[in-house]
């Protein structure tokens, strides 16, 4: 049974609008003179891509992309203010190296990828989407592809541990010595009762 | 709206992100370039899912990409914090001596 993949003219118009917003906001990330604005631009690009995913029935993933990226860009904005040490909304900036070489490489990458997208004889669609894609995804995660979730979960925990291990100013080896036997611990600010 | 059209838009996002990842000096801006590249990957994967094989497994793959994005951001922020503490900078150029 052949399944129509044409989503209609209105969806096409909506997609192209979102596509222009996504790419234009992506370009703006590296063109604006403010890190705060760059963060907002990247958030806009992600929201546009999330909305485009909603157009093709990826309800859950599209919503996750929008929600996660808005929060992630908020964190990124905080990091920019912390690390830059200046008012990020006011300072003009151009902090690039090898800009011309990077632009040539990026343009070449786009030409290769776009040529691949346009020239590859894509196969016919196999199967039809489930009536409720969110329910189908939930069922798949709890049944046939549960191993994926079982792997992703410890990876996330490992990320938390590794992130803290990298970012912490003084770890347990700094406090307790190489063999962890130093007593009392070498803390710059002693704490606890009676110390 | 065809698969080819969506893939061309995704290619544009990947290319812009690649430019940022290669050219930016600030670590957080490099991360933004990588994020933009992953943005294009998500869009392309979503289109391939819809136009070629719209079964739930493709959605699971997309969730894995989103999870990879989260890991990249978390580790990137941790490295940026470590770099700032050890070198007092947030620029990639001044982190070259980490190679020693």
TrEMBL record, chain B:
One of its GO terms (molecular function) is quinone binding. It is an enzyme of class 7 (translocase). The chain crosses the membrane at residues 33-53, 60-83. The keyword NAD applies. It is found in: Cell membrane; Membrane. It comes from the Bacteria. This is NADH-quinone oxidoreductase subunit K. InterPro entries: NADH_UbQ_OxRdtase_chain4L/K (IPR001133), NUOK/Mnh_C1-like (IPR039428). Belongs to the complex I subunit 4L family. NDH-1 is composed of 14 different subunits. Subunits NuoA, H, J, K, L, M, N constitute the membrane sector of the complex. Its EC number is 7.1.1.-. One of its GO terms (biological process) is ATP synthesis coupled electron transport. NDH-1 shuttles electrons from NADH, via FMN and iron-sulfur (Fe-S) centers, to quinones in the respiratory chain. The immediate electron acceptor for the enzyme in this species is believed to be a menaquinone. Couples the redox reaction to proton translocation (for every two electrons transferred, four hydrogen ions are translocated across the cytoplasmic membrane), and thus conserves the redox energy in a proton gradient. GO terms for cellular component: plasma membrane. Keywords: Cell membrane, Membrane, NAD, Quinone, Translocase, Transmembrane, Transmembrane helix, Transport. Gene3D superfamilies: 1.10.287.3510. It catalyses: a quinone + NADH + 5 H(+)(in) = a quinol + NAD(+) + 4 H(+)(out). Its main location: membrane. HAMAP family: NDH1_NuoK (MF_01456). It is a multi-pass membrane protein.
